[in-house]
Amino acid sequence: MSNCARGELIDEGALAAAITSGHVGGAALDVFAKEPPGEDHPLARLPQVIATPHIAGSTEEAQEIVGIRIAEQCREYLKSGAIINAVNVPAPSPEEYKALEPYMKLAERLGSFVAQIAAGRVTKVRFAMTGKIATLNTPMIRNSALKGS
Question: Are 13 and 38 in contact (CB under 8 A)?
């Protein structure tokens, strides 16, 4: 489900309940009834929700600029893996992403391995990182492990 219009078109509480119950798999939203949504917003806590900035530019010039910026951000992601301006995704610099990438690949493979050998559903995972890597953007590594599982 996605919303690219007005926040009040979606009953946010009902959507959160539908995602939590499994009736809706996820949502991508760029607008909310109250903007910006607070950290305690029920949708902000759900990993199945992707929130992006709402761009309300309605002139031809604004739309052209927005299109160019989005293309530049997509190009940067494809070139370096760096995610720019995401609302709920850790966004390392291209240099940091390069340093994290081998650990992210390893974490994803380990997550996949754990999911395959586990007796039943994995319900809890604990991560401990030490050394130089612990000073970097470790949520990216955690997310990669969870992606693998």
Answer: no
**Do 11 and 24 meet the contact criterion of CB atoms below 8 Å apart?**
no
Q: Give dist(CA 108, CA 64) in Å, integer.
A: 37
| Phi, psi angle pair for 139, to nearest 5° | -60, -30
Distance CA 149, CA 113 (A): 8
Q: What span, in angstroms and rounded, lies between the C-alpha atoms of 132 and 103? A: 12
pLDDT digits (tens, 9 = 90+) for 28-87: 888 888 777 777 888 888 999 888 776 666 667 777 888 888 898 888 888 877 777 776
Catalytic residues: 6, 35, 54
Q: If DSSP states are collapsed to H, E and C, what string results for 75-120?
A: HHHHHHCCCCCCCCCCCCCHHHHHHHHHHHHHHHHHHHHHHHHCCC
* Cα–Cα distances in angstroms (integers) from residue 81 to residues 28, 41, 55, 108, 130, in the given order: 21, 29, 23, 16, 24
